[in-house]
Design brief:
By secondary structure, the chain is mainly α. It contains six helices and two strands; from the N terminus they run H-H-E-H-H-H-E-H. Strands 1-2 form a two-stranded antiparallel sheet. Helix 2 packs across helix 6 and helix 5 packs across helix 6. Bound molecules: heme C (HEC). The site of heme C has 26 residues, from helix 3, helix 5 and helix 6.
Amino acid sequence: MKYYQIATLVSLCILLGGCASSATDARADALANGKAIFSTGRDSQGQTIAAQTPPLMPSCQACHGANGAGGVHLPGGAVSADLRYSALVSGQKHPYTMALLERAISTGIDDDGDSLNPVMPRWQLSKQDLHDVAYYVLHKLK
Ligand code: HEC
């Protein structure tokens, strides 16, 4: 890092009231935005989330349940997946990471490299929204 970059960072930290607390704020913002997307299908700016083809339901929660437990029977015989930590991480051959989760949400490729049922929308989210909803799923659905 160049001197002027460090100087910029330091002054930004001072402006934002300290680096440690701004990191905590960023995490809280990510969780709040992720929760809004998951439960309402709108991000914290009020923007409706979109997918490659129009989704059957407007929010993650509508198909996966508020606690992410899944098991909801959908048209065409699809059953929504359990998104809780116990299902996505513990005991998985290829446990979901943030990167794998972002890939599944945006491209429909699961942790084993297999294609998910097309009833699971291929979401087209901003980088921030994709990160935040994956972060919420991985850290809040127990
Ligand atoms: C229209 C219903 C529907 C909506 C809306 C939906 N999903 Fe899904 N999702 C599914 C179904 C059905 C599956 C299971 C697909 C399969 O078994 O191949 C699934 C699977 C998944 C998986 C893969 C889990 C695994 O075990 O590999 C993830 C991750 C996921 N959904 C996240 C989300 C997130 C995050 C949202 C919101 C941004 C969302 N889903 C919205 C129906 C939906």
